[in-house]
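Teaching assistant here, posting this on the class forum so everyone can see the example we discussed in section. The complex has two components, and the goal was to see what a joint structure prediction looks like when all of them are supplied at once.
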Amino acid sequence: MTNEPAIAIDGLTKAFGTRTVLGGVDLAVERGTIHALLGPNGAGKTTLVRILATLTRPDAGIALVDGRDVVRDRHHVRRVISLTGQYAAVDDLQTGEENLRMMARLGGLSRSHAQSRVRRLLGQFDLTDVSRQRVATYSGGMRRRLDLAASLIGAPAVVFLDEPSTGLDLPSRQAMWQVIRSLAGSGVTVLLTTQYLEEADQLADRIAVLDGGRIIADGTASELKARVAEQRLDITARDGTAYQQIRDRLGERAALADPARRVVGVATDGSAAHVRVLLDDIDPERIAVSRFAIHTATLDDVFLALTGHAPATIPDDLRSHPASRADLDTKESAHV
Amino acid sequence: MSDLTLTLPTARPAAAIRDTATMIGRGVRLSRRNLEALITALMLPVILMLLFVYLFGGAINTGTRYVTYVVPGVILLCAGFGSATTAVSVSQDMTNGIIDRFRAMDISAAALIAGHVVASVIRNAVSTVLVFGVALAIGYRPHGSVAEWLGAIAILLMFMAAVSWFAATVGLLASTPEAASGFTFGVMFLPYASSAFVPIDTMPHWLQGFSRHQPCTPVTESLRSLLAGQPVGSHAATAIAWCAGILAVSMVASTIAFWRRTTN
């Protein structure tokens, strides 16, 4: 194993007709890490993954996977990667076991080696009980797990996951996250795409934000959070008049303005002294402000600050349990 | 551009053969479990046979017992209907995401298509055996020698391979499985405008030229003569030329279609 990155991308561009999908992407993914490609629908995530998985040709730029060019050296690249797309690539009319055995044979495993590998993966992905049933009878989560198992059959060094948990319910999503973590734990490099900040925050060592075909930020979750005002004083005005008065007084300094809730935000270092100064400055008569709170930046803030639009949220019926959600929820505390 | 090559990659012929064998196994397994296609493949020959012999046959004068006349036609018709199944399966593979996995695993287009084509030929062969079974039960008495039977089987297999590969090409060209199914309509109706069901002399004059010179006629005539133990004349050579031609064109066309479909 060398120190060169598992994935190295330089100046990658791709257009379909007149529509530019990737406008010069640079990215490096270290070996054995999970790197999330975060972006809204249409940001170019799937196109980037398809280029890396040798399925789509870039117009310009270089992409290396395991040190090899994805266009010139694609046969080598195909031996070290696997791709799990948004739609389960398994045959409904075959059983789970038959699907895996087929992939194992196509992956070059001998009959006996294939058999033992299939048995291990079925166990690892909790599919042993249904291994003899046709995939048509599987739930969405089971199907996705089988799909991922199928992609891992050749023990790939680099795994591409295109929106691995889209459409999965809560237990399936968590099971999927667990599998992805254990993959990286075993030294596999994972590049996953997601629209969900929560998923990126939960799983990824590093997050690259892709918007409009460009990487507009790349770093760890905390590095990204540090790029926006880390602490913000959110002031709730007593009434509409007070709200307008505070807004006028702050002018350009307002980091947040929400007339519906009558909340105005302003950057602060979070110290008692600074908050006192700010409050006195904003509301010298001490009547306009009814409440205040210190808001610590979340990835949502980062996303909003970077892209100018809010990220997708996991649909409510698919939302994960409150404990894990709490890490991401707006951390608000009043302290002076 | 390995996606372009239909010939087995010389770098790893063993892998290419193994991939093709795996794909054939897949195709056969999927065929066995596709209930709709299975019913079509098994019931259609029986129904068509009975339909032609008992409903239409009485009104058609062919100079022989109609069942004897019509056996090759029913076989061709079944191959035509089977081609729809093949086109749809190929099209489904191209549209449902599994093609991405196969390509990312470096499976050649040849292996993928050959898997579908061989499964299709096997389905057709099963239908054909059924046609012969039903025909024998209702009075068909072939007189061909062993050599003539082998000749008939060879021509049949070539015809089925040609139709199947053509159908696979249609599956690659069609944007959706539904469209693929529609495009094979022509194949299904081709046998009617040949000597398969009625003598060409009885057709309107403007149609006779087409009927005499389309592939179904020499294939039908070859089969009919070989199975009846009569001299086959030039029909066999024409039939083989047609099948080989269609097969060759389909192979090239499918390669180009696959390449166009997967290069972007």
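For the discussion questions: Chain B touches chain A at residues 2, 15, 18-19, 22, 25-26, 29-30, 33-34, 96-98, 100-107, 262-264 (CB under 8 Å). The CA atoms of residues 102 and 108 of chain B lie 8 Å apart. Think about how each of these relates to the inputs above.
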